[in-house]
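Continuing the series of single-chain predictions for the mutant panel. This is the parent chain; the variants come on the following pages.
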Amino acid sequence: MTKGGKLIIFSAPSGSGKTTIVRHLLEQEDLNLAFSVSATSRPKRGKEKHGEHYYFLSVPEFKDHIKNDDFLEWEEVYRDSFYGTLKSEVERLWAEGKNVIFDIDVVGGLRIKKKFPEQTLAVFVKPPSVDELKIRLKKRSTESEDKINMRVAKASVELATAPQFDKIIKNYDLDVALAEAYQMVAEYVGVTDE
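Parent structure:
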């Protein structure tokens, strides 16, 4: 895979606010960011669109991409529920001269950091508490109680990986977290205050 621009990873347990932070950063034109759309074998939720929110693949299609070494990183998060980053997606964005930003799980984020240590800023978004996470996940109303409990259990394990990231943002106050995230990324990509 050819080396292009910079990679900015935002990882966190579900419900920590990483997607909100990433969306905010994408709106800041001076950062020259483009979103890396992940591939998944899970079904679409709500109004999700193929190629915009995820590349939705069947389990056999996903496994074919694994066999062909098409992924920068991939993981089977739950049984037959795969997520991954297609190399072609990152190369496409680099070809457009963009810095690539990821909203990705902890394991995938650390794998990318390991492959591209010099080009990657890995940021962990920490929620106020596991209890607060559960409240946020319930407010979404997108998943069953069982799924929420699975995500909360996984969150405890993910929180333990925070020290492996370059930076940690504590998302107790969203406005503060957004400002911190902007400052970190602006410094990393070389945006200077005029």
